[in-house]
């Protein structure tokens, strides 16, 4: 059963809030109609709307069996946070055992694979229930050899000033808008949340380092089948000290014809290091455009064709000013594709597709 | 027992030649006195010198037991090539079984871990013999958080125009020269051959992509203990379509104070893609200097302080001209540290260390 057919109970115990439970929150944003409940003992009794500010009446519960029975009933459990420390807490183990015993699939994006847990893996096999570790890389990934450059489709990669600035959201919005205009457009998921949404993809941050670009290449080839435009989900940032390797591998492996630069205008510093003392200041947009085009050029020249801003934390007026400033600074079309009309970016992608022919 | 105490039989069956058996050849170049024999049925009866053009009288043999008994006798088997297709051929399995039965350790740099092989792993445990899969990443690698920038030592990273241009060799030569000048200098191995030579390190191409920079950071912190200069082995190239992610992660994670640019002047195209049709043309040296400094800058500014050329395939005159041309093009000191005096680069590193204080 593809994820699009499942109804999920989301596990987010102790961490369900607007900032921490990123995976849970993205799933709620993208397919709220398929979430029956969220399990967090700390927030139990409230609605998702009350916790996040969106998500409507989906209940937050303290008990797994209670949660499974809500709405039309859950058919799967989705792990929506990483447990602190990376190890599976005992309570989680109990919940997952209970879910498997009841025949519910488990969908997990953790770096530690649930299917490899001796107890839970054996139980799943015994019950004939599937555990989907979406971060588990496919076997036999190739080293990239340039085949992504040979697809007929236009390939557009989202790049960003930081992690968590809306790269996936931007591509999903653009995909919907391009499909509405009649273009056969695929979204290629490169991270766990994207895979939860689309039901296929590779978490490129979880592959062995030698095969990042090879994974990206394979994804583009698959996404280009029967599609004219391929929108590749971005990961990390070329200026992110921890994840830049993933970002460059994805850039060189996917051989994009065009790039969309994503940014959150209220963010001045790379977020993951802001808590200690701020470390990496985000360069100006024009410098980021230049950095990405220079990084791509030796392998395969590519241009940034537009800027997507994430203005959720700005007033409407400040957001419109940020869009105008981004256009000024880069000379490129810009928008917030969630808040405003995505048309300027959709047109930029159509123009890039036309130029390809 | 550290690798420096072992005497090795090198397994290179069917692939022992100057170009294919890169790992075997590096080990022979760096510690010939500890190699008792090379196993290659195709080349058996010749000497290593006859096959490679260096390595002296080390014999090439067709039989494992014969090889183990040569010289002072092998204490370990070193896997010096990757078997075609990645799977362990049946003959290899037999040889490794025989070696373990005789109490010989196995040192392997393969992506497929010998210790995970049910039969060989069990045999090793039963006999109390160690299998060293040097590409196996340490457990619990961190995401990089900038601690490499805080060490007191000068950190120098080798970067390159391509894979296999002599980045490791250059750093080893410079390490020896710096030690001779009285500097407490460590060489930090980031690939399998370097680990065979030094006995410690992490193969950063084998870690999960999210942790490339974290692995580099850990290595620098370890290398800086009781050393004033840390020379980090480079991997891949920022312009290599397959491995650039590893290279950028290593650059951002190791937070180098200075970089050494390595290049083979006779090479015009990235080597791994030359066989099909040439794909990526290597940019001019000055452009490579610029590319690396721009890639480093947003995270931590760093400068290229010198150029190391690998001129093994040039006449002496052509080599000297290449060195002069590199100095001209970049305005930096250049040398071939194997063929000529490494002094210009050693002095450049000393100057960088002095500037740090």
Protein architecture, described:
The structure is a homodimer of 357-residue chains. By secondary structure, chain A is an alpha/beta fold. The first copy, chain A, folds into two domains: 3-133, Rossmann fold (3-Layer(aba) Sandwich), CATH 3.40.50; 147-356, Rossmann fold, CATH 3.40.50. Chain A has twelve helices and twelve strands. Chain A has a six-stranded parallel β-sheet with strand order 3-2-1-4-5-6, sandwiched between helices. In chain A, helix 2 links the parallel strand 2 (35-39) and strand 3. The mean pLDDT of chain A is 94. At the A-B interface, helix 8, helix 9 and helix 10 of A face helix 8, helix 9 and helix 10 of B.
CATH class of the largest domain in chain A: Alpha Beta
Q: State the end-to-end CA separation of chain A.
A: 38 Å
The number of domains of chain A is 2
* SSE sequence of chain A, one letter per element: EHEHEHEHEHEEHEHHEHEHEHEH
How many helical stretches of chain A?
A: 12
Using the coordinates shown, work out and report the CATH topology of the largest domain in chain A: Rossmann fold
Q: What number is the mean pLDDT of chain A?
A: 94
Strand fraction band of chain A?
A: 5-15%
Name the biggest interface.
A-B, 44 and 45 residues
The coarse silhouette of chain A is: globular
Radius of gyration of chain A in whole Å, from Cα?
A: 20 Å
The strand line-up of the biggest sheet of chain A is: 3-2-1-4-5-6
Structural class of chain A: alpha/beta
Topology overview:
Two copies of one chain form a homodimer.
Chain A: E1 8-11, H1 22-30, E2 35-39, H2 48-52, E3 60-61, H3 64-68, E4 76-79, H4 90-101, E5 105-108, H5 118-127, E6 131-133, E7 154-160, H6 167-180, E8 185-188, H7 192-198, H8 212-224, E9 229-232, H9 244-254, E10 258-263, H10 285-296, E11 303-309, H11 316-330, E12 334-335, H12 343-356
Parallel strand pairs in A: 1-2, 1-4, 2-3, 4-5, 5-6, 7-9, 7-10, 8-9, 10-11, 11-12
Helix pairs in contact in A: 1-7, 4-5, 8-9
């Amino acid at each position: 059963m593809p994820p699009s057919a499942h109804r999920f109970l989301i596990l987010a115990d102790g961490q369900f809030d607007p900032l921490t439970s990123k995976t849970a929150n993205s799933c709620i944003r993208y397919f709220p109609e398929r979430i029956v409940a969220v399990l967090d003992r700390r927030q139990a009794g409230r609605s998702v709307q009350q916790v996040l500010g969106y998500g409507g009446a989906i209940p937050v519960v303290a008990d797994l069996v209670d949660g499974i029975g809500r709405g039309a009933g859950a058919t799967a459990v989705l792990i929506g946070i990483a447990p602190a420390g990376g190890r599976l807490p005992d309570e989680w183990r109990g919940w997952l055992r209970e879910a498997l015993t009841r025949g519910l699939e488990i969908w997990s994006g953790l770096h530690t694979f649930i299917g490899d847990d001796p107890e839970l893996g054996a139980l799943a096999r015994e019950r004939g229930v599937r555990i989907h570790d979406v971060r588990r890389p496919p076997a036999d990934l190739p080293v990239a050899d340039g085949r992504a450059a040979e697809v007929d489709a236009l390939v557009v990669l989202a790049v960003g000033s930081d992690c968590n600035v809306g790269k996936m959201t931007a591509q999903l919005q653009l995909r919907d808008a391009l499909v509405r205009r009649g273009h056969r457009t695929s979204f290629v998921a490169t991270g766990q949340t994207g895979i939860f949404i689309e039901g296929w993809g590779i978490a490129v941050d979880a592959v062995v380092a030698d095969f990042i670009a090879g994974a990206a290449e394979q994804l583009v080839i698959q996404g280009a089948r029967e599609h004219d435009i391929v929108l590749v989900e971005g990961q990390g940032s070329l200026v992110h000290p921890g994840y830049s390797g993933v970002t460059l591998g994805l850039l060189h492996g996917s051989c994009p014809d065009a790039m969309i630069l994503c940014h959150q205008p209220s963010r001045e510093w790379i977020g993951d290091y802001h808590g200690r003392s701020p470390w990496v200041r985000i360069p100006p947009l024009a410098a980021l455009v230049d950095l990405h085009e220079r990084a791509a050029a030796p392998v395969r020249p590519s241009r940034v064709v537009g800027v997507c801003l994430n203005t959720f934390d700005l007033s409407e007026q400040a957001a419109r000013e940020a869009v105008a400033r981004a256009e000024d600074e880069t000379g490129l079309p810009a928008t917030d594709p969630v808040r405003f009309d995505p048309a300027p970016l959709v047109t930029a992608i159509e123009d890039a597709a036309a130029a390809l022919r």
